[in-house]
Specification:
heme; 53% helix; globular; five-stranded mixed β-sheet; metal-binding; three-stranded antiparallel β-sheet; Cytochrome p450; disordered N terminus; Cyt_P450_CS; metal ion binding
């Protein structure tokens, strides 16, 4: 009997007793959760159909793979739609997500911003842009920040920027296109858009410093859709190092500009000057970390996306000669009207840019077929019900550009047809610049920058693709595999 008692005493020693209590507590909690879930599930709509897959991994690899090709996401969504319907769930990098139907899902997301959900970006994107970037802000903080940045992109600002953008376009074609037989269009559009935004944001001229910044930004951008693995050799690790180097370069520019301002050499009227001198509602200057995060956002938004669209427009125009002729005729009419008014120089006014309607349709059609941003994310702040489905708090809602390829909204959707834009599309079917309170702030600037480039391009050059049947990829923005390698022919200005 003593032996049995001693054995029981050993079994129920203090440590063993605590372990037993922990196991019992976990069991009780599990039973409580299971029972409550049972009754809750009986009283609420079902979750959207789909498969969350394994914890964390889910469909991460197949989703990233879909994002790497031009038609990959379109095909991936179509397969899911065929199996589950237009609304489905999946898991990406540990996060449960719901792909919204189109265009109703876009409407719901844009109209309910800040009530049922707020802006969210995957870990790689939010980390690389930085926590104080306008991109990452939500609620009242976002409203205040956006109100300030709006003044950089309103109509008054566009009128002020236009002469500088136009001069840069003229200089670009003189320096890089004259006398060339072959060119890589994406390299050219990168140079044009990046030199333009560097001039307006930093008053930074072409040279070694700008080349270094461009190289690091290219390395940084490749990490946006990578796996968040911060180990040597992985793209995300390279992107983080590039961000660090970009910050060091911006630190030098901030220090130099502050010295100039202190010495009363404040003749540079650019966005950097504004960021260094503006104060918040309490009269405090912006922190350097906030300035650098938003300078990074402005540089990327002002060049990488516009450059991709321009290179793809050059690609599509070359494949459709009648489109090229239509653009030529439009810009010839603009020049004829200028001459009739006694303006025979290369200057442009906002009225001239507004007259480039067919050219803008060509760009819109390019964006429809090859959108720069294919999806966006919002995080639910409460449990919600959408179209008969229950979506829990902290899940992600995903809007996308899938309506671009739906024949219900765009007739013969895979055909490049700028004439379709003679009539406006149905609401929320075409959202290349996003929508709601987070719609792209630089939309009008990007439009002006691209139109000015094409204006000077078609005046002086015709071109053809050296590989018209080459594939289109995403890296992370859409581009021809050969970066739109073209044969160039200089023509007399009309």
């Amino acid at each position: 009997m003593a032996t049995v008692w001693n054995g029981l005493s050993f079994m129920f020693s203090e440590d063993s007793y605590m372990t037993l209590m922990i196991i019992l507590a976990i069991t009780v909690l599990w039973l409580f959760w299971s029972v409550s879930s049972y009754f809750r599930d009986r009283n609420q709509p079902p979750l959207p159909p789909g498969n969350l897959g394994f914890p964390f991994i889910g469909q991460t690899l197949e989703y990233l793979s879909a994002l790497s090709t031009a038609d990959g996401l379109q095909e991936w969504i179509q397969k899911k739609n065929d199996r589950y319907g237009p609304i489905f769930k999946w898991r990406f990098m540990g996060l449960p997500m719901v792909m919204m139907d189109q265009p109703e899902g876009n409407k719901y997301i844009y109209q309910n911003e800040g009530t049922s959900h707020h802006i969210f970006w995957p870990f790689t994107i939010s980390t690389l842009f930085g926590p104080e970037s306008l991109l990452a802000q939500s609620g009242d903080q976002h409203k205040l920040a956006r109100r300030y940045f709006n003044k950089f992109f309103d109509h008054t600002a566009m009128s002020r920027y236009l002469p500088a953008v136009n001069r840069n376009a003229i200089r670009h074609f003189t320096k890089y296109w004259q006398g060339k037989d072959e060119l890589v269009a994406l390299d050219m559009t990168n140079l044009y858009t990046f030199s333009t935004i560097c001039k307006l944001v930093l008053t930074l001229e072409e040279g070694p410093q700008m080349d270094k910044l461009l190289f690091q930004l290219d390395m940084w951008a490749k990490g946006l859709t990578s796996l968040p693995i911060n180990l040597p050799g992985f793209q995300y690790c390279k992107a983080l190092k590039a961000r660090k180097l970009i910050w060091e370069m911006l630190d030098e520019l901030l220090e130099q500009r502050r010295r100039e301002l202190a010495e009363d050499h404040g003749s540079k009227i650019d966005i950097l000057n504004n960021l260094l001198t503006v104060t918040d509602e309490q009269g405090n200057l912006l922190q350097d970390s906030c300035i650098k995060d938003n300078l990074l956002l402005l540089l990327v938004a002002g060049f990488d996306t516009s450059s991709s669209v321009l290179a793809m427009a050059i690609y599509y125009i070359a494949k459709h000669p009648h489109v090229y002729e239509g653009i030529v005729q439009e810009h010839k009419m603009i020049l004829d009207k200028k001459c009739a008014r006694g303006r025979d120089d290369e200057s442009l006014t906002m009225d001239d840019v507004s007259a480039m309607k067919y050219t803008w349709r060509v760009i819109k059609e390019t964006l429809r077929l090859q959108p720069v941003t294919v999806a966006g994310y919002r995080k639910t702040v409460t449990n919600l019900e959408y179209k008969g489905y229950y979506i829990p708090k902290d899940w992600l809602l995903v809007w996308n550009q899938f309506a671009n390829y739906n024949p219900e909204h765009f007739e013969d959707p895979l055909k490049f047809d700028p004439s379709r834009w003679e009539k406006p599309p149905a609401l929320y079917t075409y959202v290349p610049f996003g929508g709601g309170s987070h719609m792209c702030l630089g939309y009008e600037f990007a439009k002006m920058e691209m139109l000015v480039f094409i204006h000077h391009l078609v005046q002086h050059y015709s071109w053809s693709l050296l590989d018209p049947n080459g594939p289109i990829i995403r890296d992370p923005f859409p581009r021809a595999f050969d970066k739109t390698l073209i044969s160039v022919k200089e023509i007399r200005s009309f």
